[in-house]
């Protein structure tokens, strides 16, 4: 049985608390808007839903998983001393601002078009973040792909809700 060496691909024990902290931070930041407003509102329940609207339980499960992947990706980039790291971290913060802004724009303002106005640039920012992360750590970029796919679905869903209820 061999013992881990400094060339091991696993992070050292001192790194694990930082990884967990990043995951918790991203989950906390990402969940704040959901605490303030939600799809359980009387307004949202009156909207005509598209045929592909998922069950309500899908959203907290999906977002927890996505925020966890995002936290790990952010940690991977943060710990690297690589060219492009500052840009990647900056793009992550900006896309996260748009991510957090979507829920109040859509649910608190009860405005489907405002949701679209936020989610379309969010999608572009996620693509830019993935490209920037790829320059720093390809694993971090790969961890953001499910997020991009979910936001693509959410954009189509937001558009369809707007179209059906305009």
Automatic annotation (TrEMBL):
It is a multi-pass membrane protein. Its main location: membrane. One of its GO terms (cellular component) is membrane. Keywords: Membrane, Transmembrane, Transmembrane helix. It is found in: Membrane. InterPro entries: TspO/MBR-related_sf (IPR038330), TspO_MBR (IPR004307). One of its GO terms (biological process) is tetrapyrrole metabolic process. It comes from the Archaea. The chain crosses the membrane at residues 15-36, 56-78, 87-107, 113-133, 140-159. It holds the Pfam family TspO_MBR. Belongs to the TspO/BZRP family. This is TspO protein. It comes from Natrarchaeobaculum aegyptiacum. The lineage of its organism: Archaea, Methanobacteriati, Methanobacteriota, Stenosarchaea group, Halobacteria.
